Amino acid sequence: MHHRPAAPPPRPRAPRAAALLAAVLGVCSALLPVLVAARWRPLLTLDGGVSRTTHRWAVHDRGVTHVFRVLTDWVWDPLTMRLLCAAAAVWLVVRWAAWWTAVWLAATCALAALVQQAVKAAVGRPRPVWTDPVDSARFAAFPSGHAMTATVVCGLLLWLLRRFGAGRVVWRAAVATALLSVAGAGVTRVWLGVHWPSDVLGGWLLGALLVALAVLVYEWPRDGRDGSPRHRPG
Questions:
Q1: Cα dist. 25→9, 29, 76 in Å?
Q2: Read out DSSP for 174-189?
Q3: pTM of the complete model
Q4: How far apart (Å, rounded) are the C-alpha atoms in residues 178 and 157?
Q5: Which of 164, 158, 156 shows the shortest CA–CA distance to 227?
Q6: Which SUPFAM superfamilies is this protein grouped with (predicted)?
Q7: Which of 129, 147, 149 is nearest to 201 (CA)?
Q8: Any residues with CB less than 8 A from the CB of 193 and at least 6 apart, and which?
């Protein structure tokens, strides 16, 4: 009696979803800097209108502006985010002996910093200039380093929490904190007049793209990988 060969096991949904997301984000992340570099008029008009409005608010409401400067300089600063990433990597090693996962996390954050600087140099977009500035920043404008770094770090940490089976309360609190941080890191930069809105959008898109690609790399079949809930060290 002949038996039909067993059907191949279905591919995990997570890599498929990450691949689809990466494709969509890749198209958007490539299109936006082209429009910025080409000085596409509708984009520049929208950027200018939003920036002039928020700058008037920032000059008028100094209390909110001061709070936003503290948040952008100390809470959502790229250095603070990278230190949070480093702390998570240390926790992975100390708590789970998950060396591969820790290296993956740190390498992704380092790659994000390199990509950010490379795109800034390639696009070379000037920052907004005001006669009455409320803050200042260096280097080129596109993409926003604050928005991109917050997206990468928060996205990676959320994915790790989900993979390691965080409880419902922890997960909801983490999602709320991540959303607030990613949104706040971008909004404060526009309010303070050091970035155009499309700089922030570019940072969010590039950051999300890197997270999706990093998940694809992590989920790629590999024997003996640590840090997975299915293969946690004893």
A1: 28, 6, 23
A2: HHHHHHHHHHHHHHHH
A3: 0.89
A4: 9
A5: 164
A6: Acid phosphatase/Vanadium-dependent haloperoxidase
A7: 147
A8: 51, 54, 55, 58, 128, 130, 133, 134, 135
In order along its 234 residues, the chain shows pLDDT tens digits of 444 444 334 444 556 777 888 899 999 999 999 999 999 999 999 999 999 999 999 999 999 999 999 999 999 999 999 999 999 999 999 998 999 999 999 999 999 999 999 999 999 999 999 999 999 998 999 999 999 999 999 999 999 999 888 899 999 999 999 999 999 999 999 999 999 999 999 999 999 999 999 999 998 866 545 544 444 433
Q: Which structure tokens are listed for 121?
A: 């140099």
Residue spans of alpha helices (H) in the chain: 13-37, 41-60, 62-70, 78-96, 99-123, 145-163, 168-191, 197-219
Q: Which pair of tokens denotes residue 216? A: 């694809």
Write out the two tokens for 177.
Answer: 């904190």
DSSP 8-state code for residue 75: I
**Helix, strand, or coil here: 87?**
helix
Look up tokens 């928005």; give the residue: 147
Q: Is 161 helix (H, G, I), strand (E, B) or coil?
A: helix
